[in-house]
Amino acid sequence: MAKALNHSVIRAGLETLYFSGAHMLLRPLLAGVGAILTLHHVRPPRPDRFQPNRLLEVAPAFLDALLRDLRRAGIDIIDLDEVHRRLTERDFRRRFVSITIDDGYRDTLEHAYPALKRYDAPFAVYVPTSFPDRLGQLWWLALEAIIARNARIGLLIDGVERHFDCASLADKRVLFEDLYWWLRSFETEDELRRAVGDLCGRYRIDIARYCDDMCMTWEEIVQLAADPLVTIGAHTVNHVILNKVTDRSVRTEIQMGTAVLEAALGKKPEHFAYPFGDSRSAGPREFQVAADLGFKTAVTTRPGVLFAEHRDHLLALPRISINGNYQALRYTRVLLSGAPTALANRFRRVDAA
Predict the structure, then answer these.
(1) What is the rounded CA–CA span in Å between residue 14 and residue 37?
(2) Number of H-type helices and E-type strands within the chain
(3) What digits encode the pLDDT tens for the residues 13-44?
(4) What local confidence, expressed as pLDDT, does residue 156 receive?
(5) What is the pLDDT of residues 324-348, one digit of tens each?
(6) Do residues 109 and 220 make contact, with C-beta atoms less than 8 angstroms apart?
(7) Measured between alpha carbons, how far is residue 242 from residues 153, 194, 251 in Å?
C-alpha cells in the first residue's frame, strides 16, 4: 500500500508540473545543459500482475516514441565521449541527451538496439562481466520469482526462523519491498549473497539461469559493440554494491571488470557505471577509485540533469531514470526540465558527496 501510494504521489507531482506548465517556466533555470538517461530492460510488457521489478523495464514502443520526441525537440543525442568533450570544453550551445543501458540484457540487442539504430542514436551499454560469463547473480529477479510462486515464505532473520504470508497480490508487493530493503541493509555483500542463496535453496530457484535466459552472451556483446553507435562501458565483475565491500575489493571489481571487457572486445572501456548507483551504493571512495583507474566518465543513479559544474565531477554524474512505472512522454518532458530532480536534490546542482 505504501509503495502504491508513493507511486501515486510521484505521478501526481509529475502531472501537476506538466499540466500547469510549471516545468516549462522552470526549464530555463533548472534544465542544465543536458542529461544522461538510464534504461535497463526494453521488452514487450509482461502480463503478470506481480511485477515488482517493473520499474526496470519499458516497452519498445515507448522507447521509439521517446526517441522520436527527442529528435522533434531538436535535442542532440550524443555518446559519452561527446558528453565528456562538451563538459570539459564547456560547449553548451545545444542541449543534449546521452542514452545508457545497464547490465547487458539480451533485450538490449533484440528490442532497444533496432529502435536506437532507426533514429541513428548513439548509446552506451554497461556490462558486468559475470553476466555474459554466466556466473552472475541477478538476485532481485530471483526474489521476485520466489515471492511470485509461493503463498508463504520462511527465512532466517537474525538467527530466528520467520514466516510471511504472501498469498494475495498486495501481500506479495509489500513482502518484496520489505525483503529487498532487508537484503540491501546488510553491512557486507557476502551477507546479502548468503541470504539470497538460502532463499534460492529453500525454494528451488536456480539463480544462475537468469544469466542464461536474460543476458547477452559474449558473442552478442561483440556483435553489438561492432556498431560505431555503441559504447561498451564497465560495470564491475559481479554487480556488487560497492560500498559493502573492502577497499581492495572495490578496486578489484572495477579493475577486473574493465580488463575482461578489454580482452573480449579489444578496447579498454573508458566509461563506468556504479552498480545500483544510489548514494547507499557508491560514494567518494568509489568515485576516487574510478578516477585513479583513468575513466573519462562514471555514472551514478542519483537523480539529476547535468550542469556546467559537473565538469569538476565527471566520475559522479547523475542520470534520469526512464522508469517503467511512468511510461508517458509528458513525464519524460517534465523530468528533462530539471524541475523534479531539483526539488528532490533541494536545488543543489551537484550531488557528489
Answers:
(1) 17
(2) 15, 12
(3) 999 999 999 999 999 999 999 999 999 999 99
(4) 87
(5) 999 999 999 999 999 999 999 999 9
(6) yes
(7) 29, 17, 9
> What's the pLDDT band for 6 if we cut at 50, 70, 90?
confident
Domain boundaries, the chain: 2-136+209-344, 139-202
Instruction: Give, for 233, the enclosing helix (H) or strand (E).
Output: strand 230-234
Let me know if 219 is exposed, middle or buried by CB neighbors in 10 A (0-12, 13-18, 19+): exposed
Instruction: Give CA separation, 127 vs 58, 102, 134, 275, in Å.
Output: 19, 7, 12, 10
Q: Look at domain 2-136+209-344 and name its CATH class.
A: alpha beta
Distance, in Å, from the CA atom of 113 to the CA atom of 70, rounded to the nearest integer, reads: 17
What average pLDDT is seen over the chain?
Answer: 95
Q: Which three cell numbers stand for residue 350?
A: 551537484
Extended beta strands in 64-202, E state? 76-77, 96-102, 123-127, 152-157, 160-165
Per-residue DSSP letter, 276: S
Distance CA 310, CA 38 (A): 18
The owner of cell 535453496 is: 201
Question: Phi/psi of residue 272, each to 5°?
Answer: -140, 150
Residue 220: partners with Cβ closer than 8 Å, 6 or more residues away: 106, 109, 132
String of DSSP letters for 205-256 = --TTHHHHHHB--HHHHHHHHTSTTEEEEE--SS---GGGS-HHHHHHHHHH
